[in-house]
Amino acid sequence: MPREAILPFINNIFVLLLKRLTGTAKTIKYSKGFVTFISTIIVKQIPRLEIETIVNIFDSFQPNLFSQLLSGVIIPNLKLMHTTFEKRVASVAMILLLSKEFMLQDIYLNHWGSLILELVNLVKISGVASKGDSQLLIEEEMYSLDADEKGYQSGFSKLSVIGKVKPDITLKYTDLNSNLKEVIINGSKKNPRVVEILNNVNELKPFLATLS
Ligand SMILES: *[C@@H]1O[C@H](CO)[C@@H](O)[C@H](O)[C@H]1NC(C)=O
């Protein structure tokens, strides 16, 4: 099936993901799975499901929802990425996200400090691309999360459309550290406040020193 086959279901999938995320059954494993899922669809660069579209879908449910998800779920869970694949896919997705023009708007600029801080650590331990990491099946992870909740099964079964990540979609990003630096330099050129914001994060000082 083509990657685009997910498109008719994507709104429903997002709704299901959000329900679970805000529900009482919210678990760390689920929040992590959410980050991996969002990262995967970002990195896959599915036609007609560009990053801006993903953001627009979330924000159509509730204004600024994506920004809230970023600060409340995605950024805090980056340190919990466990396998090499999870680390790589999350790193690549966040770097792609940071390269988007809308990330330079005030509401998103606020997230640069905490996001870059997590990314510096994540990129450091994400290692070099290796073919052995390409076996992770996203849908397997998502299924196991909801084995106890039949109501979600049908929604999640749609995920199999985008499930198998083979070959590893992150392999073409061979130097994440350079990509991260570049995305900061690029952002700073377009909006000087990026530098200002990052300079306010003490823990980032050693990393920022390597930029110039
Ligand atoms: C930085 O900007 C250059 C020039 O626009 C672009 O080619 C490059 O892909 C950007 N880097 C990242 C990591 O987004």
Automatic annotation (TrEMBL):
<protein>
    <recommendedName>
        <fullName>Exportin-2 C-terminal domain-containing protein</fullName>
    </recommendedName>
</protein>
<dbReference type="InterPro" id="IPR005043">
    <property type="entry name" value="XPO2_C"/>
</dbReference>
<keyword id="KW-0732">Signal</keyword>
<feature type="domain" description="Exportin-2 C-terminal">
    <location>
        <begin position="2"/>
        <end position="200"/>
    </location>
</feature>
<feature type="signal peptide">
    <location>
        <begin position="1"/>
        <end position="25"/>
    </location>
</feature>
<dbReference type="InterPro" id="IPR016024">
    <property type="entry name" value="ARM-type_fold"/>
</dbReference>
<dbReference type="InterPro" id="IPR011989">
    <property type="entry name" value="ARM-like"/>
</dbReference>
<dbReference type="Pfam" id="PF03378">
    <property type="entry name" value="CAS_CSE1"/>
</dbReference>
<dbReference type="GO" id="GO:0031267">
    <property type="term" value="F:small GTPase binding"/>
</dbReference>
